[in-house]
Design goal:
By secondary structure, this protein is an alpha/beta fold. It has 17 helices and twelve strands.
Length: about 450
């Protein structure tokens, strides 16, 4: 019986693993069909997608059939062995009864004991049959839990930060003082800088995506001061969005350094660093819930927002214009991803979510692309007024239009992951070949 169980386990384990992988393919395919349904219909690819479905589901059915056949062979075999044990007891017991060495009652007792043991084993077998599937699921979960941490620290911060963390842990353990740890984090979070110190500085930053042959960014250097506006321009895939993702430590650099308020971002507590940044991603994503909830989502840790704060942020982003027309106003329910709102409405709510935080640095990653000209000008005007407030926040904006970029204090031109120009509009119009090509393509005169 044990050999039968081992045989079933060895046959079922690879089949169940293949079924789980095929289930991944089915999930991805269904998701693509739901999300990409308009594209499938627009390009009349329904037949092609149906053929893909048939192939995937046929393979999944074949694997499941093979698994059931394995169990269909194994379980009857186990039951046969179970009943054969009773036959064996009766055979040998009957022989001993005829010889006078056993009584009939002894045989019945042995059969009863054997049935109890074998029934318990049979119940255990039904549980053991599920072990291959549990092993595969456990291995997949473990892959995720043991995935290598990508939030690494470039030299020379890797060793210093590790030592600092270990010393802090040791000190906290010895003293039993939570206050010491809290004061250290608070000191980091309240790091200040003089007016001469840049709010943000890139120093020869090089970044490479995982398993990439060449770096996405190489030797990037620039500075942004309080109250300044930096526009980033370049071709598609040049690395503009990558720069904006490095600032809040969504990725870690390969070499160089990024300083925020005069301190390396790798010396900051990551939560404290991000609380000083208002980030508007390239794709404005909204969560299921009310508009009020989505705007309040941008509040920093410990920041208490009033109704007026939410309304003021929406007014700056010119989102109040359409919110007041919606049924329920700020209590209007937003579907997952904001699919019941237009692209421009989602972008304005994403801006309001960043504005409500009142950060030291705004990062707008091509966040005006879905706005009409009138709304874009109104939002930019309100944003410029916000930059003149007491805390003098800075703005980094990825731009596609020269007409918007030329109003920035500085323009950073990225070409194939490298700096192709840095300066004002007038300076770049005469010194940067790449910027001159952009001007020519948009028919803008210097």
């Amino acid at each position: 019986m044990i050999l039968t169980i081992i045989f079933i386990e060895s046959r079922a384990l690879p089949i169940i693993k293949a079924i789980q992988l095929k289930l991944d393919d089915i999930t991805d395919m269904v998701r693509d069909h739901i999300v990409g349904m308009p594209v499938i219909r627009a390009f009349n690819r329904r037949t092609y997608e149906n053929d893909k479905e048939i192939v995937i589901f046929t393979e999944s059915a074949r694997l499941n059939k093979k698994l059931r056949q394995t169990f269909a062979i194994g379980l009857p075999t186990i039951l046969i062995l179970f009943n054969m044990s009773t036959v064996a007891i009766l055979w040998f017991g009957g022989y001993n009864v005829s010889m006078g060495s056993l009584q009939v009652g002894d045989i019945m007792a042995v059969i009863e004991y054997a049935n109890l043991i074998l029934l318990s084993m049979l119940m255990a077998i039904f549980v053991i049959i599920d072990i291959p599937e549990a092993i595969v699921c456990y291995a997949r979960i473990r892959e995720l839990l043991e995935h290598e941490n990508t939030d690494t620290f470039p030299e020379p911060y890797a060793s210093s930060i590790t030592n600092s963390m270990s010393q802090s842990t040791k000190h906290s353990t010895n003293q039993g003082s939570y206050q010491t740890s809290t004061e250290t984090e608070t000191a980091t979070a309240t790091a200040t800088a003089t007016d001469n110190t840049p709010l943000l500085e890139f120093r020869n930053v090089t970044f490479r995506y995982d398993n990439a042959e060449s770096p996405a960014l190489e030797n990037i250097s620039f500075t942004v001061h309080h109250g300044e506006t930096l526009a980033i321009m370049g071709d598609i895939g040049s690395g503009k969005s990558t720069i904006t993702n490095l600032i809040p430590r969504l990725f870690s650099i390969e070499s160089g350094d990024i300083l925020f308020k005069g301190k390396s971002i790798y010396e900051w507590n990551v939560d404290d660093l991000r609380s000083h940044i208002g980030y508007v991603p390239q794709k404005a994503y909204l969560f299921t819930g009310t508009i009020d909830m989505n705007v309040r989502y941008g509040a920093a840790s410990g920041q208490v927002l009033s109704v007026e704060d939410v309304e003021n942020a929406c007014h700056l982003a010119k989102a109040d214009e359409f919110i007041n027309r919606l049924e329920g106003g700020y209590q209007y329910m937003v579907s997952q991803g904001g699919t019941n709102l237009s692209g421009g409405q989602r972008q304005r709510l994403a801006m309001a979510r960043a504005l409500v935080r009142k950060p030291d640095l705004f990062i707008f990653d091509d966040s005006f692309s879905a706005l009409d000209g009138t709304t874009e000008r109104a939002v930019r005007t309100a944003l410029q007024e916000e930059l003149q407030k007491d805390n003098r926040p800075a703005l980094i904006s990825v731009e596609q239009k020269v007409s918007a970029a030329k109003k920035a204090d500085h323009i950073l031109i990225i070409n194939r992951g490298q700096v192709a120009g840095y300066g004002t509009h007038d300076e770049l119009a005469t010194t940067s070949t790449v910027y001159q090509q952009i001007l020519a393509s948009q028919e803008v005169t210097a």
